[in-house]
Amino acid sequence: MENVVVVGGGPNGLMTACELALGGVRAVVLERRTEPSTEPRSNGLVGEVVRMVDRRGLFERLSGRPGPPQPNSGYFMFAAMPLNLSLLEASPLYSAPVPELATVRTLEERARELGVEIRRGHEFVGLTQDADGVTIAARLPDGQAYELRASYVVGADGAHSPVRKAAGIGFPGVTYDRTTSRAAHATVPTDWLDPASGALNVPGHGPVMPFLPIRTARGGFSYAPLPGHAPLVATVEWDQPVSEEPMTFGEMRASINRVLGVDVPVERPSGDGPHVLRRINGGSTRVAERYRSGRVFLVGDAGHVFAAGGTGLNLGMQDAINLGWKLAAAFRTGIDVLDTYETERRPVADRTVTYSQAQAALLAPGDEVTGLRRLFGELLAQPAVVQKLAELVAGADVRYPAGDMPHPLAGWPAPDLELHGPDGIIRLAELVRKGRPILIDLTPSGDLDSGSDDVEVIHAKADTDTTALLLRPDSYVAWASNDPHPDVDALRAVIGEWFGP
Ligand SMILES: Cc1cc2nc3c(=O)[nH]c(=O)nc-3n(C[C@H](O)[C@H](O)[C@H](O)COP(=O)(O)OP(=O)(O)OC[C@H]3O[C@@H](n4cnc5c(N)ncnc54)[C@H](O)[C@@H]3O)c2cc1C
């Protein structure tokens, strides 16, 4: 019997498998594809996930940049309107421009380093569950069928999730069928580029700032000069005739012309691909009605999809981090906190529905939307509004339920503290990379004891009023104190609740 079978070797399935392995649990990944996908998808990680990958030692590997990640203090976009993050004292928004293919490659390498077994070419076809485990039916590329047993199954098998369907979990929400989105890696006339601002100066239209999409009465346009690649140009239009023909460069150019009212001579790039040339009709915003059915769990796109871009991996990889340690704990300590996966993660998806739908409304055609955008643009001059929206984009505004825990940090990711200990200065993000529970003792006496073999204690000093922090393996604060003599009974009660006696 396997401990956990993860169905789907995309970013979120691989992240789940890595977390399980960190927690000391054997994970087997079943992936239908015999080779990794070459279809470019996400252009990067946006939001709290960037801080979380730093807390797994993956930021440098993924971004190719030295850490720690820095918050974005320039511009970001919301519904094709610029969010001026420089208005904020401390921007809550992090981003890392890593193509999804590179993210998957890095996570697969990491999973193999941690001893995860990845079975490529193995397709999940069905499951039945009983009180002791789950029987999974799988198929090899030559059609040969086999079965395997596992204590738990994680469906990380994408938006059309066969696992979700097999577990009988509905996927309610909205599918918008009025939009057509097109995107292509393309060369643009070099003499249209402003070297100072990086803008694409479109004669007859004006400058289009990099990464800041614009909306016109006829649709949306964006220009994204991504590192190491030809720029990505993209449009979105409403109420276009649906075409089933393969997408062409001529179609991309005609779409830009319709949206901007100007012919932009984009050309197919030379050099190494894969190059995007894509048309997507419609888009869906849906959240699974449950994230758990008995011994079966959903993570990533299997649990939620959003028409608004830039959100999928922020949610999915954090689902994986949340579920991974809880499943591992069920084996290691026997403690069952598995139901908290849904109570913690589903509200984050619900919040992203708001984000997605608000953007869809603000991008739609029509004079009344133009009026609404004008008003919204005025509101965006106010730092408090920018702060609110930046937190929404980052997914930094949802606190996990913290019960009657009075401390303001409880239920939030631990702050990015610098800790001064006997071995020098260490960032909290480096301390938590093993994915184990930690008690950080910042009391003047430095003599706190967790009373548990499973909870490592770090004695340190830091520039904060907090005197003790109990962190879960996902680096969320389970308990905290500002008292120089923290209530040890209260601390141990929380340790018992999350990590066992
Ligand atoms: C065009 C586009 C642009 C995007 N841009 C962004 C962006 O900028 N930022 C962002 O955060 N997100 C973006 N997203 C969303 C992001 O790509 C997804 O959220 C992410 O790929 C979801 O990962 P996943 O692991 O949950 O699912 P997937 O990546 O879909 O992986 C699921 C895996 O399961 C496998 N599988 C399916 N069925 C079976 C089966 N029966 N047996 C075995 N294996 C199976 C599949 O082969 C696949 O490998 C974009 C998506 C698209 C389409």
Give a verbal description of the structure.
The protein is of the alpha+beta class and 501 residues long. The protein has three domains: 2-173 and 285-394, FAD/NAD(P)-binding domain (3-Layer(bba) Sandwich); 179-282, Alpha-Beta Plaits; 418-499, Glutaredoxin (3-Layer(aba) Sandwich), CATH 3.40.30. Helices cover 28% and strands 26% of the residues. Strands 1, 2, 7, 8, 9, 10, 18 and 19 form an eight-stranded mixed beta sheet that branches. A hairpin with a 2-residue loop joins strand 14 (214-216) and strand 15. Helix 1 packs parallel to helix 4. The longest helix is centred in the last third of the chain and has 25 residues, at 339-363. It is globular and about 70 Å long. The model has no long low-confidence stretch (mean pLDDT 95). Bound molecules: flavin-adenine dinucleotide. Flavin-adenine dinucleotide (FAD) is lined by residues 7-13, 30-33, 41-44, 100, 123-124, 156-158, 162, 300-301, 309-314, 316.
Provide the descriptors you would attach to this structure in a database record:
single chain, 501 residues, alpha+beta, FAD/NAD(P)-binding domain, Alpha-Beta Plaits, Glutaredoxin, 3 domains, six-stranded antiparallel β-sheet, binds flavin-adenine dinucleotide
